[in-house]
Amino acid sequence: MTQVFILSSLSLMFIGLYGVLTRKNLLKIIIALNIIETGINLLLVSFGYIDHGITPILTSQESILNLNKMVDPVPQAIVLTSIVIGLGTTAFALALAIRYKITHNSISINASEEEEGRGI
Amino acid sequence: MNSIVFLVVIPIIAAFLSLFLGKVNKLIAYIVTIFNLSFSIVVLVSGKIPFNVAIGGWRAPYGINFVVSDITIFFLLLINVAAVLSLTTIKEHMEYQFYAFYFILLAATNGMVLTGDIFNFYLFTELTTFAIGGLVAYKRDRLATGASLKYLILSSTASTFSLAAIGLIYKTLGTLNFADIASKISNLNKASLSLILILFISSMLVELKIFPFNIWVVKAYDASIPAVNLFLHGMVSTAGVYGAIRILLMVFSKNSIMLSQSSNIANILILLAFITVIISEIGALTEKNLIKVLAFSSMAQLGIFLFGISLGNYEALKGAFYIVISNYFAKFVMFIVAKNYSVIAGSRNYEDMKGLGRKYPGLAIAFTISALSLMGMPFFAGFWGKLSIVGNALLMDKIAIIGVIIILISSVIEGVYYLRISHTFFSDGNIQDTKLSRINCVLPIILAAVILIIGIYPNSIENIIWTMINEIQNTPEKYIQVILPLK
């Protein structure tokens, strides 16, 4: 089962990377960034995954005996943080994209290239 | 010394407060920055270095820890001095967004230097990304928005891959602590180490301005206000340099030997440094915009730094430290001079600045001194850096000798474009009278004097540099045992 998770997360990462590298539309680039982040999150969770694992909470004295069956909580904590960072990146990038539309009158990433040859 | 967390916490609290305080923000920015600087000085003179702070009482491999060692305190001082110096260039009223992002940047760069946990390092890097994105976009015009958005996209793509590297480190070594990774890294096989390093370095090269992650640099420098130029140069690059030294040389080097012996990554880094130096020198040669010339030149200097640390030789590493210090002071002088002159001339094209050197000779002389230092003229600070790197690279293999040739040619190219600019300053031209603020005139002269002092008496900082190299040489005793005393 872990292999399925890792394979699907890798494919998500490469789909997202392809999107970031080839798309011209800003919104599509931001969505592709989100796809990469989802892939990475899935990868991290699958690193801590155990088949038929149980939640890593010590409820009683006996539950310490089940330590081997528990999934690893550290990747889950990392993923929670990284989801929040992804939210922040997306919100900030979308806000900038709105201003980009106002200043460039376009949401194509190429629209800002013409300023290269502009007189200083 | 638990109070070391104040360096990160107080700027973050100030960032929240700055949303409501309006005109008081400027004062608060000075208070917080000077607090950070004086606190670092207090830590330096307290004599307790090195020490380790376990946050929340969770001991090192399990919890997050802040470490203060010789390298840390040196870079803390550089970053906080840079913050104070940059603030002095802000004269006009800034809105609360600027100060909020500035405080976040201050917290994040201090945190990057202090932290001893790789995931925490990643978080602070991301915070730096946001802060720089916001600060570059502060002007709200066409150029600034495009530059900021491109930086944000490039940097977040690169840092997602470093998150994957962190996952791989946790999967293979079972730890996220720098010291724990450093002590276990020799168990890791070569393929995994190379994969982790390739993924992780990608995000560090964005801050180090190394090809192919440097397309944002020139646009961001050109689009942002002068204070943000200084933030980018003095705080973000310095934190990136720290990250490269700590992570490449101390954490991911097997048995505390240098990078080149542990994997092929060193050769890749050397090649990237070559390409960076060549591209940026050619770019600077053809550029007429003074700010863009300085941006290209700072890329070239960091390329030489990366070449110095990848050689795997302690003498060359000393040269790399000299390069960092001379570039740090010289670019401060140059950005402040460029800011003042572009205000007077009404344009950033250096050909419009004719005659300014005759009217304001102090600034132009300071600019020339920094230019000579960056070129590597004898008796200026940059000379000692280039001397140790070139002298030691000559004794090594073929690829290092190619690097020597590239560095020497790049010095000549730097001479051509910098002295052309200096000559333009001192040539005849008619300019109108403008009043310059006094601190902006005195500051570059003081910094240029520092460059001269370091150049003439290199012994003044040689000891500090050898203390830091000593820490890198003896990573197990000086770094790992501070954090994990049981082992």
From TrEMBL, chain A:
Alphabetically ordered keywords of this record: Cell membrane, Membrane, Transmembrane, Transmembrane helix
TM regions (residue ranges): 6-22, 29-50, 77-98
Protein family according to the UniProt entry: Belongs to the CPA3 antiporters (TC 2.A.63) subunit C family.
Residues spanning the signal sequence: none
GO cellular component: plasma membrane
Localization terms from the record: Cell membrane
Keyword Cell membrane: yes
Pfam annotation, one family: Oxidored_q2
Protein name per UniProt: Multisubunit Na+/H+ antiporter, MnhC subunit
Annotated source species: Thermoanaerobacter thermohydrosulfuricus WC1
Membrane topology, from the record: Multi-pass membrane protein
InterPro entries in the cross-refs: CPA3_antiporter_subunitC, NUOK/Mnh_C1-like
Upper taxonomic lineage: Bacteria, Bacillati, Bacillota, Clostridia, Thermoanaerobacterales
Chief localisation class: membrane
From TrEMBL, chain B:
Domain NADH:quinone oxidoreductase/Mrp antiporter transmembrane: 116-405
Localization (cell): Cell membrane; Membrane
Membrane-topology descriptor: Multi-pass membrane protein
Keyword NADP: no
Membrane-spanning segments: 6-22, 27-46, 66-87, 99-115, 121-139, 151-173, 193-218, 230-253, 265-286, 293-314, 320-341, 362-384, 399-419, 439-458
GO CC, one annotated term: plasma membrane
MF terms in GO: lyase activity
Keywords, ordered alphabetically: Cell membrane, Lyase, Membrane, Transmembrane, Transmembrane helix
Primary location group: membrane
Keyword Transit peptide: no
Residue stretches in coiled coil: none
Matching PANTHER family: NA(+)_H(+) ANTIPORTER SUBUNIT D1 (PTHR42703:SF1), NADH DEHYDROGENASE (PTHR42703)
Family indicated by similarity: Belongs to the CPA3 antiporters (TC 2.A.63) subunit D family.
Protein name per its UniProtKB record: Formate hydrogenlyase subunit 3/Multisubunit Na+/H+ antiporter, MnhD subunit
Protein source organism: Thermoanaerobacter thermohydrosulfuricus WC1
